[in-house]
């Protein structure tokens, strides 16, 4: 079986070389990056923000969606430092699995009925509606104890973190250090919960665009010829599409009740649409850059040798070329995340961002801006969200500059 | 050259067709339409309206008929504002957006250049760091936050500008500044980098060695060098300002295309929204084209293909 | 958000000097361009500036609804009667006087002979007959058409093909060429309906006897009529309607109009002062067609003002109509009506002196303004005849269960809503008809009772909210409505254990969703069109255009109908009270609170009164900078 053998040879012979190259490159870059104080500070900040955002459910914060209208627009206050909130109903949580199990059974029965139903369209639609209702009911039952306290819908991990938080701190939480909003909700906790959404939005949407962009660019660059021509021409066409407009157009159309219901059934909410759409926009630049890199790498020695050893096309692209694109990708990543986060803020401003009870920084900043009036400025509602958003984006920008400088000394600022 | 123009024109048509097709089918996939009145209509009237708008025909025929109208430049009536056609809305809004955009561009370049050059000359000092921090902040903060802060500062605390509206030059300054701010920040960063590049080059050192005063060196030689990359940034900046006016026009209640589009999209005024998407596609395309053309004019090495 | 791609020094091999030159030139062009563009927009200031909350849909009085549109319509058009700006009692408008018959069914209006259109032509009884016919024409599809259904046979006329029966006298409107102005009417043939032949769900043929001959008419669109020959034995037409001569609108002579009503309607005169029944100029409409006739260069109006120009989403500039009969008493020459969507921006404009009257104040600012000490001399909130409530879509399960609807109402803590979100002192409400109508006994729904609400939920099969589907509250996009929906969402979740979501849409989209019944629960507000409980109660009869809840109750319909025919005002109110009782027991709506007017009016503005409909007419206002003490606005009590 000569083919397998050659492949193996290719792997042992070429991969280490490539890996070595990548390694030495990144080690070198890392050393340079470590010397850049601003970049390191930014990185530390970002890591701290990410860790805090991840641990939010565990922290002794008030529930982000707990309205206390009697405390409306309370200014930031630190005395007393600890306040008591409603306790978590552990009995109800304990009862939940039983209820859910029962409903799962009903759901299974319904599904069976749905599969067997071959009667009229009307009945099929009816059963489908029931199915959806049941599924929603199961979700709602699971979330109910948390929802009552004012938590947004959470995954399994976050739910157990919230339970751990109540076990650790009881119903004590930090007072509203950042003030309260119109409904008397604690801004501090909303900022923490908003961080989760904002960061996730930035990351996921960027990764989606990365995956599309890198693959598209790599394939285009590697294939060359008319394929390359056609693929790049397509990118050119898309470059001239005013995407902001298309996104708004799309989001309003998808917000139509019937369409939104259908999408919700498939687990697609506005955020998911946002991921997909933003991912679909921001890959354009990436694909161009990657294509350029691939074309120049294509004729490098290690690629030529892999090819002469008979490695398959896809193997060359994905195993040998892509790892060498790391530097470009990294720079791109740090520059795109802030842009995506800004875009989310922009959509929140238009009322097309996340939907309550979820919160994001963009939404919070917008809520602050909306209550500016010459009569009274609730400064905390503008200051803190802007600070959170500004710090994160500033850090990302500085880190991006640093990474670029470190990876490509030729582009360095003098 | 002519070949290049022609090719670009063809591609613009292709782009427009793609945008049109996608928007058309999206539009038709949602319930509602021109007959979507607040009142339940008599069946005959409903039929009449459907016939008038060709809604009784199969989808592909509707598509072709509508396409024919758009090609002739007729973008139809607004669904929600009964008294206006889409063309009229564009005719009113475009000059306003252009005025706002050009002033924003002027702000972006002047403020950006001044900040960038100052920062480069004072390299390594606290002022340099502060200027660059402000510049990065300008890129990092959302437009509407900057606008909000500007309103607090320049409308209420130091009342020198009106809060909103459209009509005289005063009302244009603040929104143009907010719109131009992020681009000023970019320009500042670019100007600083290229200025430092130039300052370290041989002929500047020679000039200095010849005993020319520092201000003359900076103004005549170095500044000229720093301008060039800034000029090449203007293309993308124009495109950005064009689309960025969405927010600023909303906040300052300026009746430009941006606020028309946002309102149209939010109120599901699909004909108006689609007309504006098409218009923006053309504008964006023209801008990219213009940038390429100016590169070719400025740099003989660039070939138009 | 910004699409910035920086091409690193896409270098540079033209000579440096020429490139700097190009850059400088470009720069100068930009600066000049922006200055030029704004100078073009420079306007001489107006005498008076009003902020309208949104861009209006149209200036055609037949097609509009809503307060922002109304402000314009009242300024540029005038009906047979006007409403007194203070009391809203009918006062002479185009009609100088009128007579009402003994049985209160026939009104004879004598028009003043000096009423003029803005082109100088006299306003005649024919103008009203033309405008009202157009308003009722099903092709106009006027939303408010039901405001004219009090006129004899008007309802049947406006129903078009559905309003006629065999043997009725009918009129057949023939097709015109597709190029004809869309405001023109086709040729009218008068005849007698013989039979209606249904063809399918949407289409019908009408067999009409005209001059002893039976002809089958098939309604169609003009272009189809022009392009295709009708099938054998069928003739094309635009529509077949009841003969307009059957409708109780009769022109006795140029200046005398007689109107016959279906029932004695005590508030009919008030309706005539309401904009849907304002006249439009036939010649203007037919010369330019719709919507071109509404353009400022074409429009002909008969009110105190006419439109100088209109810039979409910016402003409408009104100038005094120099032919207006009462021009001596119109004191503001030039008025700007600005379309500003954001309440905060509007307040900013007011406080910086760029506007003289704003009709709404954002709640966070109101909280502070109302507490100011000494009290402001330009803010005087007062309740008016209005109601803020949530509609329930009773066609959707499980909202079709009255127990659920009652429980939802009982689970609300209305005090919390008004005290925390509505700082102008809005009173909570448990009824649809607000207090303030003399002689009408207030009816109320069950007060807050969470225990009972939970019990009802359990009884309906949803103990502790288990199994209850997700509810969605639809509101239009405005900060106050969003905040109220958020709070109600939390109250329901807390009290009943159910999952509630909120959705918001812009005004136009929201109205469409309402009408098409695409909602579970929707926020709605209603301001009385005239001072009578009927303005609220007739919205919920089965076939009302405003009833988008799907709720229908024969007994309720009967009571409202009986009240309509009742001559004795006492008995009438008792009937309406009974009707409201049914409504509040069945609860297709959840009353929440009563609106309070939130106008801010500069102290130098005179002739502005708080009244029961929060309706203020620009023609009645004037500016007097020498005003000392409080103006009419601050003096007028709630």
Can you summarize this structure?
With 414 residues, chain A is mainly α. Helices cover 74% and strands 1% of the residues of chain A.
The number of distinct helices of chain B, counting runs of at least 4 residues, comes to 11
- What radius of gyration of chain B results from the CA coordinates? 25 Å
Which percent band covers the strand fraction of chain A?
A: under 5%
In the predicted model, the low-confidence regions of chain A spanning at least 5 consecutive residues are 1-24, 410-414
Number of strands of chain B: 0
Strand proportion of chain B: under 5%
Q: Major beta sheet of chain B, specifics?
A: none
Shape summary of chain B: elongated
Please identify which CATH superfamily of one domain in chain A we are dealing with. Answer: MetI-like
Q: Please give the CATH class of one domain in chain B.
A: Mainly Alpha
State the share of residues found in helices of chain A, binned by percent: over 70%
CATH superfamily of one domain in chain B: MetI-like
Q: Please identify the oligomeric state.
A: heterotrimer
Secondary-structure content class of chain A: mainly alpha
CATH architecture of one domain in chain A: Orthogonal Bundle
Q: Using only CA atoms, what is the Rg of chain A?
A: 26 Å
N-C termini distance of chain A: 56 Å
Order of helices and strands of chain A: HHEHHHEHHHHHHHHHH
Largest sheet of chain A: 2 strands, antiparallel
Protein name (chain B): Dipeptide transport system permease protein DppB
Membrane topology (chain B): Multi-pass membrane protein
Organism (chain B): Bythopirellula polymerisocia
Family (chain B): Belongs to the binding-protein-dependent transport system permease family.
């Amino acid at each position: 079986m000569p083919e397998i053998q050659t492949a193996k040879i290719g792997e042992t012979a070429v991969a280490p070389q490539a890996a070595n190259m990548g390694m030495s490159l990144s080690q070198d870059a890392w050393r340079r990056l470590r010397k850049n104080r601003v970049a390191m500070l930014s990185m530390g900040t970002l890591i701290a923000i990410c860790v805090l955002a991840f641990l939010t459910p565990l922290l002794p914060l008030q529930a982000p969606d707990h309205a206390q209208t009697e405390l409306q627009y309370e200014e930031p206050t630190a005395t007393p430092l600890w306040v008591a909130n409603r306790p978590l109903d552990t009995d109800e949580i304990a009862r939940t699995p039983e209820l859910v199990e029962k409903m799962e059974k009903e759901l299974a029965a319904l599904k069976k009925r749905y599969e067997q139903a071959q009667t009229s369209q009307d009945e099929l639609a009816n059963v489908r509606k029931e199915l959806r209702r049941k599924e929603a009911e199961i979700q709602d039952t699971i979330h109910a104890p948390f929802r009552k306290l004012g938590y947004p819908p959470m995954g399994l991990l976050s739910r157990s973190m919230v339970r751990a938080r109540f076990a650790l701190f009881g119903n004590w939480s930090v007072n509203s250090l950042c003030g309260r909003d119109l409904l008397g909700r604690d801004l501090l906790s909303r900022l923490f919960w908003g961080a989760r959404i904002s960061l996730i939005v930035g990351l996921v949407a960027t990764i989606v665009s990365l995956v599309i962009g890198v693959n598209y660019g790599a394939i285009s660059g590697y294939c060359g010829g008319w394929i390359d021509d056609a693929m790049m021409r397509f990118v050119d066409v898309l470059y001239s599409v005013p995407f902001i407009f298309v996104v708004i157009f799309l989001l309003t159309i998808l917000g139509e009740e019937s369409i939104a219901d259908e999408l919700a059934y498939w687990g697609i909410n506005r955020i998911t649409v946002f991921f997909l759409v933003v991912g679909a926009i921001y890959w354009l630049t990436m694909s161009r850059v990657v294509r350029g890199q691939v074309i120049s790498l294509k004729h490098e020695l290690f690629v030529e040798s892999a090819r002469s050893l008979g490695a398959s096309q896809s193997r060359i692209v994905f195993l040998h070329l892509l790892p060498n694109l790391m530097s470009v990708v990294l720079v791109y990543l740090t520059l795109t995340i802030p842009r995506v986060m800004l875009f989310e803020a922009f959509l929140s401003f238009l009322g097309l961002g996340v939907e309550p009870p979820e919160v994001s920084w963009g939404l919070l900043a917008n809520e602050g801006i909306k209550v500016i009036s010459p009569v009274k400025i609730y400064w905390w509602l503008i200051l803190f969200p802007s600070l959170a958003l500004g710090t994160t984006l500033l850090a990302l920008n500085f880190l991006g500059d640093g990474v670029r400088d470190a990876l490509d000394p030729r582009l360095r600022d003098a | 050259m002519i070949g290049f123009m022609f090719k670009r024109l063809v591609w613009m048509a292709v782009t427009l067709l793609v945008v049109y097709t996608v928007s058309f089918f999206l539009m038709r996939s949602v319930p509602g339409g021109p007959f979507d009145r607040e009142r339940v209509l008599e069946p005959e009237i409903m039929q009449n309206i459907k016939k008038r708008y060709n809604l009784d025909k199969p989808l592909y025929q509707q598509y072709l008929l509508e396409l024919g109208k758009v090609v002739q430049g007729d973008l139809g009536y607004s669904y929600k504002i009964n008294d206006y056609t889409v063309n009229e809305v564009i005719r009113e809004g475009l000059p306003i957006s252009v005025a706002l955009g050009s002033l924003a561009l002027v702000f972006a370049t002047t403020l950006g250049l001044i900040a960038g050059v100052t920062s480069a000359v004072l390299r390594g000092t606290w002022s340099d760091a502060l200027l660059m921090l402000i510049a990065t902040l300008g890129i990092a903060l959302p437009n509407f936050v900057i606008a909000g802060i500007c309103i607090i500062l320049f409308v209420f605390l130091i009342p020198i500008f009106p809060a909103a509206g459209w009509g005289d030059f005063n009302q244009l300054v603040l929104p143009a500044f907010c719109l131009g701010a992020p681009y000023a920040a970019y320009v500042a960063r670019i100007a600083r980098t290229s200025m430092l590049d130039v300052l370290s080059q041989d002929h500047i050192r020679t000039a200095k060695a010849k005993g020319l005063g520092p201000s003359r060196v900076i103004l005549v030689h170095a500044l000229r060098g720093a301008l060039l990359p800034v000029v090449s940034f203007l293309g993308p900046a124009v495109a950005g300002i064009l689309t960025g006016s969405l927010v600023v026009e909303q906040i300052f209640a300026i009746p430009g295309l941006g606020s028309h589009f946002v309102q149209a999209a939010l109120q599901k005024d699909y004909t108006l929204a689609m007309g504006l998407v098409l218009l923006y596609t053309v504008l964006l395309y023209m801008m990219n084209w213009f940038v390429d053309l100016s590169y070719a004019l400025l740099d003989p090495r660039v070939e138009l293909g | 958000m910004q699409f910035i791609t920086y091409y690193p020094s896409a270098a540079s091999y033209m000579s440096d000097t020429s490139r700097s030159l190009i850059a400088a030139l470009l720069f100068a062009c930009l600066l000049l361009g922006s200055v030029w563009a704004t100078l073009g927009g420079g306007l001489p200031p107006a005498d008076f500036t009003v902020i309208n909350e949104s861009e209006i849909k149209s200036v055609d009085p037949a097609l509009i609804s809503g307060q922002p549109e109304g402000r314009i319509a009242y300024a540029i058009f005038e009906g047979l009667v006007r409403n007194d700006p203070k009391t809203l009692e009918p006062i002479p408008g185009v009609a100088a006087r009128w007579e009402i018959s003994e049985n209160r069914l026939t009104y004879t209006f004598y028009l003043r002979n000096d009423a003029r259109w803005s082109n100088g032509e006299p306003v005649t009884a024919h103008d009203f007959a033309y405008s009202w016919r157009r308003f009722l024409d099903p092709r106009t599809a006027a939303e408010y058409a039901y405001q004219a259904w009090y006129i004899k046979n008007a309802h049947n006329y406006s129903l078009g093909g559905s309003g006629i029966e065999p043997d009725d006298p009918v009129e057949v409107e023939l097709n015109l060429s597709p190029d004809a102005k869309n405001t023109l009417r086709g040729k009218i043939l008068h005849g007698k309906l013989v039979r209606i032949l249904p063809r399918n769900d949407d289409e019908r043929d009408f067999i009409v006897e005209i001059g002893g001959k039976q002809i089958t008419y098939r309604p169609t669109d003009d272009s189809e009529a022009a392009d295709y020959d009708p099938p054998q034995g069928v003739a094309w037409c635009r529509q077949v309607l009841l003969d307009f001569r059957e409708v109780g609108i009769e022109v006795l002579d140029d200046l005398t109009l007689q109107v016959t009503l279906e029932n004695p309607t005590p508030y009919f005169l008030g309706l005539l002062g309401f904009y849907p029944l304002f006249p439009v100029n036939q010649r203007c409409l037919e010369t330019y067609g719709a919507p071109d006739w509404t353009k400022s260069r074409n429009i002909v109006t008969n009110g105190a003002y006419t439109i100088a120009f209109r810039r979409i989403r910016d402003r409408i500039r009104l100038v005094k109509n120099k032919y207006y009969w009462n021009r001596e008493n119109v004191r503001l020459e030039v008025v700007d009506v600005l379309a500003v969507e954001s309440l905060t921006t509007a307040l900013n404009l007011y406080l910086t002196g760029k506007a003289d009257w704003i009709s709404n104040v954002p709640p966070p600012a109101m909280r502070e303004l109302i507490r100011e000490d000494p009290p402001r001399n330009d803010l005087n909130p007062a309740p008016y005849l209005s109601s803020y409530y949530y509609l329930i879509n009773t066609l959707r399960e499980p909202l079709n269960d009255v127990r659920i609807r009652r429980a939802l109402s009982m689970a609300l803590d209305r005090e919390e809503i008004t005290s925390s979100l509505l700082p102008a002192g809005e009173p909570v409400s448990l009824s649809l008809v607000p207090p303030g109508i003399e002689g009408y006994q207030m009816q109320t729904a069950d007060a807050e009772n969470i225990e009972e609400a939970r019990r009802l939920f359990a009884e309906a099969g949803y103990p502790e909210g288990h199994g209850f589907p997700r509810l969605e509250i639809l509101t239009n996009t405005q900060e106050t409505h969003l905040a109220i929906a958020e709070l109600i969402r939390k109250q329901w979740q807390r009290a009943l254990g159910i999952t509630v979501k909120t959705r918001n849409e812009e005004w136009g989209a929201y109205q469409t969703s309402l009408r098409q019944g695409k909602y579970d629960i929707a926020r709605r507000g209603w301001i009385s069109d005239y001072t009578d409980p009927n303005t609220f109660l007739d919205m919920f009869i089965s076939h009302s255009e405003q009833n988008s809840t799907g709720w229908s109750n024969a007994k309720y319909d009967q009571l409202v109908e009986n009240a309509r025919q009742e001559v004795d005002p006492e008995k009438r109110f008792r009937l309406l009270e009974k009707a409201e009782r049914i409504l509040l027991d069945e609860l297709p709506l959840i009353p929440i609170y009563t609106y309070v007017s939130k106008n801010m009016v500069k102290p130098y503005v005179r002739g502005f009164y708080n009244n029961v409909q929060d309706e203020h007419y620009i023609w009645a206002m004037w500016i007097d900078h020498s005003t000392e003490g409080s103006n009419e606005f601050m003096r007028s009590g709630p």
